């Protein structure tokens, strides 16, 4: 069957009413957490994993994808109205978007972000549908050594391209890899680094780590600085509709953003923010209104917002076809697949074709829903920003502990006569780790990706070396692996160079725009 | 921060501590891995290779971190207030020690009260009450509705 046929079948599955409900819950939750500061899509999916354990796999995964997409839509709202980007992918949006909001053009800024996300989301989802089978065909021929090289590449790109320091990125990755070793080695049954604690024999749960780093760590970081920061929500004044002029200036930016964002998400070239930087730079160079840049140019919102949505769809290419997560949310989604006993990779496209295509098609559905949810209901979402911090963060912590207790609530620790949950203790410990990492400028995503991808990489490495009877030359035996290692080396050097340039530009902007 | 010449910046003490912690973790992994008893019939690439690699990596990273800290290359940090941080941690610890016997609602009430206090909302008895009632509702939805196994205490037993 060709791609169109598969996609049509997937669309039929995605349009079943229960899947529509899952998609709707997903996009609604996703938009809400995207708007709310302090929680993002990765945390939300991690919290929902224990709840969805008994639900239908396809429906749950459709919901997770909806959350991912919704988070990208919602993130722009905080950037534009609050000037505090909820995630790194909307830093650039804040540059022009907040300026527009201050000039009373918040409505058109939000509209161009939403419609741009929709346009780019459609382009990227179709691109995903056509690129994925092609990647699968190549990936079938991959041996263990090639997979290992691919994972090394992913490790390098996610850690060295995230954040502003390769040293700190790689340190974060190695913390994750170290945590991944804990537990029973699946091939020999040996306990590793478990220090005689029975709870550690099963390894560290990805969800516990993610919830701790994102929810507890973030709450601690906000609590520590909340006295110094004053948030100012800018009310949406005037018409939310874009003028004809706005449309004319936005649509080329949307298309460019979509085509820049998708390959960068898919490559894997690191975070979605790289695409937004490229898109912003492109719009700046191509604009007919250079004087407006830094003062609220609509292209500067349209392009990057389109790019970050497109790269969100792009990250699903390596995730679905190779089982390779390149963002924190993708890593948690991989844990979601594993929870249902599914291993993303080329085989998934033959063994669970209907599920994969329903998931891809559901992205199209989610995009339509998000457009409807976001344009007319923007006022409702903005009201979420007025939830007082004490209630917001105690709610986040309440749900974080609820999810952890629900997933693994055995009261296996004891302090005198009091029994306590070892899992909650780990949640607290990793939460403090998350706070320290944030405080010292370490990126969080590589820790999560290291934990989930480390054991898979080790498995491939040992398989490759077992086949070659311990000869390490096998690792660089195929041209593909050599190529991947070269790309990995380039991935350290090139983004560093681009980042210094791109970031310098953005930083200069920020410095010039401070009022 | 300028990425260029900031030679005037002093060594960063806290970052040096991080380098030390990384070094310690690396040594612990080395030590733990070396004490593993391997079965006699062992593939040449056994369960020790990966941990050793990670330990070696962490060792190198701790040196890199130390150099970076010595040159003051870490991003500038804002002055943090540790009071609120301590309140949040106290709330989490309180919940951890309470849930097994006092139940989810009361334990979470303490968590909510402490967190609200950290963000400047009081008084404690009021936020505790709100938190407990809210957590009881949540408990009812998730434990009864979604069959999630959540700790039960005196308050939860009152519910049908």
UniProtKB/TrEMBL annotation, chain A:
Keywords: Membrane, Transmembrane, Transmembrane helix. InterPro entries: DUF112_TM. The chain crosses the membrane at residues 20-49, 61-82, 109-135, 147-163, 169-186, 316-335, 355-379, 391-411, 417-435, 440-457, 477-498. It holds the Pfam family TctA. Coiled coil: none annotated. Residues 20-449 form the DUF112 domain. It comes from the Bacteria. This is Tripartite tricarboxylate transporter permease.
TrEMBL record, chain B:
Residues 17-151 form the DUF1468 domain. Keywords: Membrane, Transmembrane, Transmembrane helix. The chain crosses the membrane at residues 12-32, 52-70, 82-104, 124-142. This is Tripartite tricarboxylate transporter TctB family protein.
């Amino acid at each position: 069957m060709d791609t169109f046929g598969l996609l049509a079948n997937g669309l039929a599955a995605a349009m079943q009413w229960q899947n529509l409900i899952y998609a709707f819950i997903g996009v609604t939750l996703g938009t809400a957490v995207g708007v709310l500061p302090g929680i993002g899509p990765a945390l939300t999916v991690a919290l929902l994993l224990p709840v969805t354990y008994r639900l239908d796999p396809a429906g749950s995964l459709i919901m997770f994808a909806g959350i991912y997409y919704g988070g990208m839509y919602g993130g722009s709202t905080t950037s534009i109205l609050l000037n505090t980007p909820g995630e790194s992918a909307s830093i650039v949006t804040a540059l022009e978007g907040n300026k527009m909001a201050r000039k009373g053009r918040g409505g058109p800024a939000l509209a161009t972000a939403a419609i741009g996300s929709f346009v780019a989301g459609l382009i990227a989802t179709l691109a995903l549908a056509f690129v994925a089978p092609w990647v699968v065909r190549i990936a079938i021929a991959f041996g263990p050594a090639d997979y290992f090289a691919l994972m090394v590449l992913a490790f390098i790109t996610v850690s060295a391209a995230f954040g502003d320091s390769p040293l700190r990125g790689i340190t974060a990755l190695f913390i994750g890899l170290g945590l991944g070793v804990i537990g029973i080695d699946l091939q020999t049954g040996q306990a590793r680094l478990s220090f005689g604690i029975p709870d550690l024999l099963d390894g560290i749960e990805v969800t516990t780590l993610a919830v701790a780093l994102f929810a507890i760590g973030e709450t601690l970081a906000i609590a520590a600085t909340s006295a110094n920061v004053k948030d100012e929500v800018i009310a949406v004044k005037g018409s939310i509709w874009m003028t004809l002029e706005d449309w004319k200036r936005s649509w080329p930016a949307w298309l460019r953003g979509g085509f820049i964002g998708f390959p960068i998400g898919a490559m894997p070239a690191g975070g979605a923010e790289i695409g937004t930087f490229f898109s912003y730079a492109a719009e700046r160079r191509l604009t007919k209104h250079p004087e407006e840049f830094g003062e609220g140019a609509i292209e500067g919102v349209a392009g990057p917002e389109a790019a970050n949505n497109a790269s969100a769809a792009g990250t699903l290419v390596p995730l679905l076809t190779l089982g390779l997560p390149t963002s924190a949310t993708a890593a948690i989604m991989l844990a979601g697949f594993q929870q249902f006993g599914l291993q993303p990779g080329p085989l998934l496209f033959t063994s669970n074709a209907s599920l994969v295509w329903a998931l891809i098609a559901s992205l199209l559905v989610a995009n339509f829903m998000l457009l409807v949810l976001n344009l007319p209901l923007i006022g409702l979402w903005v009201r979420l920003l007025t939830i007082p911090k004490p209630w917001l963060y105690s709610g986040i912590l309440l749900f974080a502990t609820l999810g952890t207790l629900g997933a693994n609530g055995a009261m296996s620790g004891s302090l005198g006569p009091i029994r306590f949950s070892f899992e909650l203790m780990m949640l607290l410990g990793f939460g403090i780790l998350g706070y320290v990492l944030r405080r010292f400028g370490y990126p969080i995503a590589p820790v999560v990706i290291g934990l989930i991808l480390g054991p898979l990489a080790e498995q491939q490495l040992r398989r490759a070396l077992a086949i070659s009877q311990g000869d390490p030359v096998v690792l660089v035996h195929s041209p593909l692996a050599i190529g991947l290692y070269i790309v990995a080396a380039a991935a350290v050097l090139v983004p560093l160079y681009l980042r210094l340039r791109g970031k310098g530009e953005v930083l200069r902007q920020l410095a010039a725009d401070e009022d | 921060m300028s990425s260029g010449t900031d030679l005037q910046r002093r060594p960063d003490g806290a970052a040096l501590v991080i380098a030390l912690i990384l070094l310690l973790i690396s040594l612990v992994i080395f030590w733990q891995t070396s004490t593993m008893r391997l079965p006699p019939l062992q593939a040449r690439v056994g369960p020790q290779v990966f941990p050793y690699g990670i330990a070696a990596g962490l060792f190198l990273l701790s040196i890199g971190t130390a150099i970076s800290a010595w040159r003051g290359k870490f991003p500038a940090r804002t002055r943090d207030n540790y009071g609120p941080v301590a309140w949040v941690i106290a709330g989490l610890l309180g919940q951890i020690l309470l849930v097994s016997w006092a139940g989810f609602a009361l334990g979470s009430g303490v968590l909510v009260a402490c967190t609200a206090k950290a963000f400047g909302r009081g008084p404690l008895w009021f936020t505790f009450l709100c938190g407990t009632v809210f957590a009881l509702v949540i408990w009812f939805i998730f434990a009864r509705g979604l069959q999630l196994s959540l700790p039960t205490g005196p308050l939860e037993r009152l519910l049908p």
